[in-house]
């Protein structure tokens, strides 16, 4: 039980107001006297010693030793006359605790502990007035942790990072929310006012890539056929006439055998003669061709070697040309994908720039758009060069 007392003697008043805490028996008796209106000036007294910390409390027939402590908290005291309006009368920061047993006093200056304000720690009360404030001096009056550098997020940098991530993405979508819209769904379900870039087909951008190469191949084949027909000379036509004549004779012989089986022996002799004539004709044709080539190239052996080398070289050139065409076609496909990706990024950033109000961020996006345009133009020029090479037959 705690009671508040005002000191009438100025010479013994360490504070204007403090709390007096008595043992339960004396506290109940003092409470009854105060509530009944009995004059307690003759029954109650407090006598301080020279240090103004130790005192003797006398009440009625009891004499109690007491000590004055400093509270860790400050409590305001108020008075009222009508239970409606309260007037502050002081700040209570001390408590006097009276006990039935003698209060032990520590003697000797060496044993006295003082804080930085040169106050005796023996008179520091560890608790507050209420139970929740138990050990409040140790629990609440600790040193606070001071962090010099706080990681404060930079809103502008975070927005820039998000926009750059959207620009690098192949597709994205966003929602525009009106903060002042009262009809907005409380669950956060908004109408999808979004857009996304669909993958653009390569044929939509560059047209049919296979049509030009197919047409070119057909034209080359037709030219080769014309060259072959022009190289065939009159001698080949004459040899062809002899072959046709021998073929007609063989057909007539076979028909006669079917009509007259008796003349089969005579027909066999004619068939043998025709076959031998065809063999001689083929041998003469081969010798004539070899002789012509020998005249042009020096000797028959050198011609044969050069012919074999030319055939091998043509085959190697064809294989090399095929490999080059395959590599160039793969390069074209890669360039098509790169151009499509650059175009999608550029369009995405152009749409974002329209909604950006920050001038610094807007300039950065515009420079990025210009760089994307340059890259796209370079890739387009490289694509056109490779396409022309393929059309010309590498």
TrEMBL record:
Gene Ontology molecular function, alphabetical: RNA polymerase II general transcription initiation factor activity
Stretches of the chain forming a coiled coil according to its record: 318-389
Region (Disordered): 203-243
Keyword Magnesium part of the UniProt annotation: no
GO cellular component, one term: transcription factor TFIID complex
Amino acid composition bias (Acidic residues), ranges on this chain: 215-224, 232-243
Localization per record: Nucleus
Keyword Transcription regulation: yes
Domain (TAFII55 protein conserved region) ranges: 14-171
GO biological process, one term: RNA polymerase II preinitiation complex assembly
CDD domains on file: TAF7
Principal subcellular localization: nucleus
The entry's keywords: Coiled coil, Nucleus, Transcription, Transcription regulation
Record's signal peptide: none
Similarity field: Belongs to the TAF7 family.
Protein name per UniProt: Transcription initiation factor TFIID subunit 7
């Amino acid at each position: 039980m705690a009671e508040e007392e005002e000191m009438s003697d100025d010479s013994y008043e360490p504070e204007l107001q403090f709390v007096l805490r008595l043992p339960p028996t004396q506290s109940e008796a003092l409470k009854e006297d105060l509530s009944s209106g009995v004059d307690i000036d003759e029954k109650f007294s407090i006598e301080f010693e020279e240090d103004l910390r130790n005192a003797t409390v006398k009440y009625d027939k009891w004499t109690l030793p007491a000590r004055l402590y400093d509270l860790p908290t400050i409590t305001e005291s108020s008075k009222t006359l009508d239970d409606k309006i309260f007037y502050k009368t002081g700040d209570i920061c001390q408590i006097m605790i009276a006990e039935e047993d003698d209060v032990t006093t520590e003697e000797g200056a060496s044993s006295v502990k003082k804080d930085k304000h040169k106050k005796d720690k023996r008179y520091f009360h560890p608790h507050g007035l209420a139970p929740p404030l138990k050990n409040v001096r140790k629990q609440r009056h600790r040193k606070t942790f001071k962090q010099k550098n706080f990681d404060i997020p930079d809103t502008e940098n975070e927005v820039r990072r998000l926009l750059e991530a959207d620009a690098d993405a192949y597709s994205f979508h966003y929602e525009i929310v009106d903060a002042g819209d009262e009809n907005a769904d409380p669950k956060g379900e908004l109408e999808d006012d979004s857009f996304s870039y669909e993958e653009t087909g390569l044929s939509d951008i560059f047209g049919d890539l296979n049509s030009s190469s197919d047409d070119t191949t057909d034209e080359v084949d037709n030219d080769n056929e014309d060259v072959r027909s022009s190289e065939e000379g009159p001698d080949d036509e004459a040899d062809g006439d002899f072959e046709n004549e021998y073929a007609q004779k063989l057909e007539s012989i076979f028909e006669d055998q079917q009509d007259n089986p008796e003349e089969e022996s005579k027909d066999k002799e004619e068939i043998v003669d025709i076959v031998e004539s065809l063999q001689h004709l083929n041998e003469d044709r081969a010798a004539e061709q070899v002789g012509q080539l020998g005249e042009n190239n020096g000797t028959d052996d050198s011609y044969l070697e050069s012919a074999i080398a030319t055939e091998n070289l043509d085959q190697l050139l064809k294989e090399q040309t095929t490999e080059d065409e395959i590599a160039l076609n793969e390069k074209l496909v890669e360039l098509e994908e790169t151009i499509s990706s650059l175009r999608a990024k550029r369009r995405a950033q152009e749409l974002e720039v329209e909604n950006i109000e920050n001038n610094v961020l807007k300039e950065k996006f515009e420079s990025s758009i210009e760089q994307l345009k340059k890259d796209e133009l370079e890739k387009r020029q490289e694509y056109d060069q490779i396409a022309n090479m393929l059309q010309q037959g590498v």
